[in-house]
Each structure stands twice: as C-alpha cells, then as structure tokens.
C-alpha cells in the first residue's frame, strides 16, 4: 500500500472512527493482499509510511471474498470483477485475508 493511500486510510479512521471503516483490497495475489491488510490492521510492516507503528485494527476484506461478493450488486460484480476472479488464486487470497483478520482486526 503506497504512502498516499496509507494517509487516506489513517485520515478516514481518525475522521469516522476505526470501528466505522472497512477497507477493501483488490491485490492479485494473496501475499500482496495480506501485506495491504496487515498495513491497515497492525501497522506498516515496511516502516516507511504514515501507518508505521499505528495499529488501527481496521476491518479489511478482499473484493473476491464471499462476504463482500454477496453484498455487491451481482451485475456490477460480474462487469467489474468476475473476469479477474477467474485468474486469481481466490482460495489463497481468502486464506491470507482470514489469517490477518484473525490476528489483527479489532472491529469484526
């Protein structure tokens, strides 16, 4: 997650309260999704951005996870995401995201 997006997430959490913020990621692989998820929950693991040492504990999901897929308009999901979903290792992404949520999310 780049430094600008880290700042945006931190600002939203400060403005609306971390219990009211849900972060959706769309990385193409589990490891990248996990890194973004870890950043918004446990703090920036690269120690380079505004979330360094900031444990927001935000709720975070990948766009391809069933919990998100079931609340998105099916036509929009089909148009915007389904093609990408066919080439992703969705099981790996779900496993990685679940692990991060189990470890660091405070607001599930």
Automatic annotation (TrEMBL):
- Provide the protein name: Glycine/sarcosine/betaine reductase complex protein A
Q: How does it assemble?
A: Monomer. Component of the glycine, sarcosine and betaine reductase complexes, together with components B and C.
UniProt keyword annotation of Oxidoreductase present: yes
Q: Which family does it belong to?
A: Belongs to the GrdA family.
Q: What is its EC number?
A: 1.21.4.2, 1.21.4.3, 1.21.4.4
Q: What class of enzyme is it?
A: oxidoreductase
Q: Which GO terms describe its molecular function?
A: betaine reductase activity; glycine reductase activity; sarcosine reductase activity
Q: Name its species.
A: Megasphaera cerevisiae DSM 20462
Any one Pfam family match given in the protein's UniProt record, by short name: GRDA
Q: Name one GO cellular component term.
A: glycine reductase complex
């Amino acid at each position: 997650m780049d430094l600008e997006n880290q700042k945006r997430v931190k600002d939203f959490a400060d403005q609306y309260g971390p219990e009211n913020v849900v972060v959706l990621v769309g990385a193409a692989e589990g490891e990248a999704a996990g890194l973004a998820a870890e950043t918004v929950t446990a703090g920036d693991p690269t120690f380079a951005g505004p979330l360094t040492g900031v444990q927001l504990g935000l709720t975070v999901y990948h766009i391809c996870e069933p919990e998100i897929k079931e609340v998105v308009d099916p036509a929009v999901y089909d148009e915007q995401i389904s093609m990408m979903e066919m080439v992703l290792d969705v099981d790996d992404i779900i496993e990685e995201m679940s692990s991060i949520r189990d470890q660091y999310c405070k607001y599930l």
